[in-house]
Amino acid sequence: MAKVSVYNMEGKEVGSVDLNDAVFGVEVNEHLVHMAVLQYLANNRQGTQKAKTRSEVSGGGRKPWRQKGTGHARQGSIRAPQWKGGGVVFAPVPRDYSFKLNKKEKRAALKSVLSDKVNTESLIVVDELKFDEIKTKSFAKVMTNLKVDNGLVVLADNDANVVLSARNLANVNTTPVNNLGVYDVLKAKKLVVTKDALEKIEEVYA
Question: Hey, where are the domains in the chain?
Fold first, then answer.
């Protein structure tokens, strides 16, 4: 069972906590992590691209000239793909790129990236994150104290003061435990988790 230090908002070590091996000590499954990232990116694609085929562009109902005797190549329509203003041969159409992963696969992928953060010493546990007012400077100071310049902050609940204080920081994002995703964890260099959020993660995913 891995043990990590717990820090306060000033960046000072105030204790330690044992991590549940069922969540933070699993073998990293790179294939499932890869599939989870692909799913996230594919599900975010709009798929609204569209171009017209020769049957959809306007005009071209008449044969431009007779079949034989003109010296030109035979043509059936001025809206064929080789003509200026003609339709596209294999035109893209709106489509849905999304696909599904099994619930167990999603959970296994998330556990893999969480375990990887522990293995690379990129997991920081904070005893609490509390702000009396919405102030970006205060949140930035906490991140500086924790030596985090690019990270994901995981909260037990959607605390408005914390979320809004972090919103203007370019390389720091916040998320509640119930929205925790593989892609967000993987993209962040450091994972900052409050003690309450850590307990909630172990409760949900253990």
Answer: 3-45+99-205, 47-96
3-45+99-205 has which fold? Answer: Ribosomal Protein L4; Chain: A; (3.40.1370)
Contact call for residues 110 and 180 (beta carbons, < 8 A): yes
CA–CA distance, 51 with 89 (Å, rounded to integer) = 10
Which 3 state secondary structure label does DSSP give 136? helix
pLDDT digits (tens, 9 = 90+) for 60-115: 889 999 999 999 999 999 999 999 999 999 999 999 999 999 999 999 999 999 99
Q: What is the pLDDT of residues 1-20, one digit of tens each?
A: 788 999 999 989 899 999 99
pTM of the entire predicted model: 0.82
Cβ–Cβ under 8 Å, residues 146 and 11: yes
Q: 10: left (phi > 0), else alpha (psi -120 to 50), else beta?
A: alpha
